[in-house]
Design brief:
- The longest helix has 30 residues, at 53-82.
- It is globular, with a radius of gyration of 27 Å.
- The protein folds into 3 domains: 28-83 and 100-133, no CATH class; 86-98 and 134-200 and 226-379 and 445-480 and 813-821, Glycogen Phosphorylase B (Rossmann fold, 3-Layer(aba) Sandwich); 484-710 and 725-737 and 769-807, Glycogen Phosphorylase B (Rossmann fold), CATH 3.40.50.
- It starts with a strand and ends with a helix.
- 48% of the residues lie in helices and 16% in strands.
- The strands form 6 sheets. The protein has a 9-stranded mixed sheet.
- The chain has 824 residues and is an alpha/beta fold.
- Strand 8 (210-214) and strand 9 (217-221) form a beta hairpin.
- Its cofactor is pyridoxal 5'-phosphate.
- It catalyses: [(1->4)-alpha-D-glucosyl](n) + phosphate = [(1->4)-alpha-D-glucosyl](n-1) + alpha-D-glucose 1-phosphate.
- Its EC number is 2.4.1.1.
- It comes from Novosphingobium decolorationis.
Length: 824
């Protein structure tokens, strides 16, 4: 029996606004249909006979939103009434993807929406395609934040996500002649029916100026201010247990237009303040290779962090009245180093506004804030030139100096030597003086967590070694997870149906119940049904790529997939080199029994990252040559899918047979794509890096393909001298593949295009492509051998599905809640 939310207005004796009530009906969509039609007419302004698909799309979301709002309000009221503690998750990215299907599924209303739209000759799947991907993130960091928000609501934990309402966000990627071209992602072009602007939640955010002191009270007088205004989106948990809030900040100039200047003919100057404010929320990760880019990045980070912290403190004071009790009612989680300035901002508010003594404020701050580190790459641990930081945030610079003085005295007292003191300091004095944001987050938090077991141990040994010595109990591990609702139930309904019929549907809420599939892993009938679903997903992906790219793919080939941000440490280049070697071997030895393969790549390169963009061009050049060569026939195809995003991931991941997780060991913090692929029945080929280590432990050695150097071996080679040239010259396949690429076989229009890229492998090969090539190639041939035994492959696939339920974001959030946030 379905449930609908119809309008129910109070009787005369029950004054108040009309409120939605739940109506139980026996499969009839009429009441829900009526509600959508009313919304179409009164909010969209269209008669149902004249409405176009985009009108129905808006009406469907508005109608569903009406159902969500009561649960949203009830969730908020419940938190106030029970005096519960809230989690505040600060992140530069929230890669939420499309929300309609997610919300319908978690509200249990998918079938009702399908029936209501079908009554008007509409297909829900087609309507869903009108929703743009929210351009609020780049990769794993932002998608993790989105999974966490869904799990927080599912676990009934009160939470706000805080970020920026990017107008364009991460760029839209177009491939022109094989090259990445960055275009604005205009996801807000036609509005966003999910969001609610909160004019009452607006804050003035300052930059520059000076600091004055009156007695013991410091006052910051910014030279420039913008207004941050909250825009809220509801986040629905599974079965609508709770609806939490994703609060994103928009920016407006206090004086949007100077009419005197405009009327005098200075049209651009008259709008300069609004343009300056608009730049704060225009683009995610503006290139920071120039001083202007660095300044904008720092402005963005302070803008959203300051607005968020002020909002948190305002809410706490409104309901509790005492800033000292903040840690009892609020837990602020910093998602990587981008919001690290929250430490200084919270201290500023407590000391300057609420007039706490510095030491007392420091204890409140540290008990409230916790920090997640996502990278071991030194260049990703943000630092800012001290003159820039001091010019933009003069009061915060004073506070950071004060914190640093306290920490360094503590370190000296603990017996740290000069080298350790230099590493612990919040100010890097080794060259141009810079503010170390990761160190600020570390010392200002009571908990610092890594996101995989290996990553956490390496944090203690590398980037935070000296801070770990000073604070040996602060670092802990919280291995990442993904939400099984989005990444199994919604993106792979066919597989979900097969699993539900085999073991029941408890796994949707408790993914570890997938382990019941272990008893059926060798069941022939289940294996065949899982294989049928996989092939159907591959057919669907092939049809999509044919329609969008004009390429024909064989769904019976092995779909070998690497989709993620393009970066040298993720080693798309290693994959491409092995692809060239395979291409060469197929042509040289046509008599062998080759396994047909489709190599699928996808991902964006940072706009200023030359080598990453060159790798994209190489992938497309190789695809052009290989795909047009009749000598390899249907044995090898190469595809680079443009504009990789969440919606594309939802099509590609269910169709993948092989998941490429081949980063240089010791450099990937965790990864979450590895979890999504395994959950959907793909086998992993990967290094012992990030969460691959734990996936291997869960699924068993026989159900994963591991190759390459370990993190310890990589570190040892780098420390003791590594000669990639000798390795290349000693490997015929590797040498031939590199020679083909470097000599212009794949770039006849510019034979030197890849000479520098390949030449770098001979000289230094920091990411160990040459060192791992032979092991990687052998692992790929082992994959071929497994593929030739369909029954064994199906068993491996089922065991992957059965044993990765632990990598649910519900489990991860449960650990955060218990160990770090202390919420129930």
């Amino acid at each position: 029996m379905g449930q609908f939310l119809g309008f129910s207005c109070g009787r005369a004796s029950e004054p108040g606004p009309c409120r939605l009530r739940r109506i139980s009906v026996a499969g009839s969509p009429s009441e829900f249909d009526d509600h959508i039609v009313r919304v179409l007419r009164h909010r969209v302004g269209k008669d149902e006979r004249a409405a176009k698909h985009h009108d129905w799309y808006n009406a469907a979301i508005y109608a569903l939103r009406d159902h969500i709002i009561d649960d949203w309000i009830d969730s908020t009221r419940r938190t106030y009434e029970t005096g519960g503690k809230r989690v505040y998750y600060l992140s530069m990215e929230f890669l939420i993807g499309r929300l309609l299907r997610d919300a319908l599924s978690n509200m249990g209303m998918t079938r009702e929406m399908e029936k209501a739209l079908a009554a008007h000759g509409l297909d829900l799947a087609e309507i869903e395609e009108f929703e743009p991907d929210a351009a609020l993130g780049n990769g794993g960091l932002g998608r993790l934040a989105a999974c966490f928000m869904e799990s927080l609501a599912t676990l009934d934990i009160p939470a706000y996500g805080y970020g920026i309402r990017y107008v364009n966000g991460m760029f839209r990627q177009r491939i022109d002649d094989g090259w990445q071209v960055e275009l604005p992602e205009t996801w807000l072009e036609h509005g966003n029916p999910w969001e609610f602007e909160r004019l009452e939640s607006s804050y003035r955010i300052g930059f520059g100026g000076e600091v004055t002191v009156d007695g013991d009270i410091a006052s910051w007088h910014p030279a420039e201010q913008v207004e941050a205004t909250a825009v809220d989106t509801p986040v629905v948990g599974y079965k609508a247990k709770r609806v939490n809030t994703l609060r994103l900040w928009s920016a407006t100039a206090l004086d949007p237009i100077k009419l005197d200047a405009f009327n005098a003919g200075d049209h651009f100057g008259a709008l300069s303040e609004q343009v300056r404010a608009d730049s704060l929320v225009r683009v995610l990760y503006p290139a920071d290779s120039s001083p202007a880019g660095q300044e904008l990045r720092l402005r963005q980070e302070y803008f959203f962090t300051a607005a968020s912290v002020q909002d948190i403190v305002r809410r706490h004071m409104q309901y509790e009245g005492d800033i000292r009790t903040l840690p009892e009612k609020a837990s602020i989680q910093l998602n990587d180093t981008h919001p690290s300035v929250a430490v200084a901002e919270l201290m500023r508010l407590m000391v300057d506004v609420h007039q706490l003594e510095f030491n007392e404020a420091w204890e409140v701050c540290r008990k409230t804030i916790s920090y997640t580190n996502h990278t071991l790459l030194p260049e990703a641990l943000e630092t800012w030139p001290l003159p820039l930081f001091e010019r933009l945030l003069p009061r915060h610079m004073q506070i950071i100096y004060a914190i640093n003085s306290r920490i360094l005295r503590e370190a000296r007292k603990a017996g740290c030597d000069d080298g350790q003191i230099a590493a612990i300091s919040l100010i890097d004095e080794s060259g141009e003086r810079r503010v170390r944001m990761a160190n600020l987050a570390f010392v200002g938090a009571h908990s610092v967590n890594g996101v995989a077991a290996l990553h956490t141990e390496l944090m203690k040994e590398t980037v935070f070694a000296d801070l770990h010595t000073l604070y040996p109990t602060r670092i802990n591990n919280k291995t990442n997870g993904v939400t099984p609702r989005r990444w199994l139930q919604q993106c792979n309904p066919g597989l979900t149906r097969v699993i539900r019929e085999a073991i029941g549907d408890g796994f949707i809420q408790d993914a570890e119940k997938l382990s019941a599939l272990n008893d059926l892993a060798t069941d022939t009938q289940l294996g065949e049904r899982v294989a049928e679903v996989k092939r159907a997903n591959k057919v669907a992906l092939a049809e999509h790529l044919k329609a969008t790219m004009g390429i024909r793919l064989n769904p019976d080939a092995l779909f070998d997939v690497q989709i993620k941000r393009i970066h040298e440490y993720k080693r798309q280049l290693l994959n491409l080199i092995e692809t060239v070697a395979l291409y060469d071997q197929i042509r040289s030895h046509p008599e062998r029994d080759w396994v047909p393969r489709v190599k699928i790549f996808g991902g964006k390169a940072a706009s200023s990252y030359h080598n990453a963009k060159l790798v994209i061009k190489l992938a497309n050049d190789i695809a052009r040559r290989v795909n047009s060569d009749p000598s390899v026939g249907g044995l090898l195809k190469v595809v680079f899918v443009p504009n990789y995003n969440v919606s594309l991931a939802e099509k590609i991941i269910p169709a993948a047979d092989l998941s490429e997780q081949i980063s240089t060991a010791g450099m990937e913090a965790s990864g979450t794509g590895n979890m999504k692929f395994a959950l959907n029945g793909a086998l992993t080929i990967g290094t012992l890096d990030g969460a691959n280590v734990e996936i291997k432990d869960k699924v068993g050695d026989e159900n994963i393909v591991i190759f390459g150097l370990t993190a310890e071996e990589v570190a040892e080679r780098r420390a003791n001298g590594y000669d990639p040239r000798a390795i290349i010259e000693g490997s015929r396949e590797l040498g031939q593949a590199l020679s083909m690429i470097a000599s212009g076989v794949f770039s006849p229009d510019d034979r030197d295009r890849y000479a520098g890229l390949i030449g770098g492998l001979y000289e230094h090969d920091w990411f160990m492509c040459a060192a791992d090539f032979e092991s990687y190639a052998e692992a790929q041939r082992a994959v071929d051998a497994r593929w030739r035994d369909p029954a064994a492959w199906r068993t491996c696939a089922i065991r992957n599905i059965a044993n990765v339920g632990w990598f649910s974001s519900d489990r991860t959030i449960g650990e955060y809640a218990k160990d770090i946030w202390k919420v129930t």
